[in-house]
Write a structure and sequence with these properties.
The chain is an all-alpha fold. 58% of the residues lie in helices and 0% in strands. It contains 3 helices and no strands. The longest helix is centred in the N-terminal third of the chain and has 18 residues, at 5-22. It is elongated and about 45 Å long.
């Protein structure tokens, strides 16, 4: 069994950002819109999903997977 918890966390974080772009919140946490607005996943989110799937299907090695996760974490430290 492969450990994909790191990439799953990244995907969840990116998907939440995509959701909040389409469905913003006020400063008190209430939604701006009354109804849910549909949204699409960004290219960055889809890239993370592709890396996860490639790793699970042995298209990329564990080293490439870990390198991608580390590169993401280093470039997105303060966000």
């Amino acid at each position: 069994m492969k450990n994909i918890s790191a990439i799953e966390k990244i995907i969840a974080e990116l998907a939440k950002k995509d959701y909040l772009v389409a469905n913003p919140r006020r400063s008190d946490g209430r939604p701006v819109y009354r109804t849910h607005h549909p949204y699409s996943l960004s290219a960055e989110t889809n890239e993370a999903r592709r890396v996860r799937d490639d790793y699970l299907h042995d298209v990329i090695s564990e080293e490439e997977y870990k390198a991608w996760c580390l590169r993401y974490n280093l470039t997105h430290m303060d966000s």
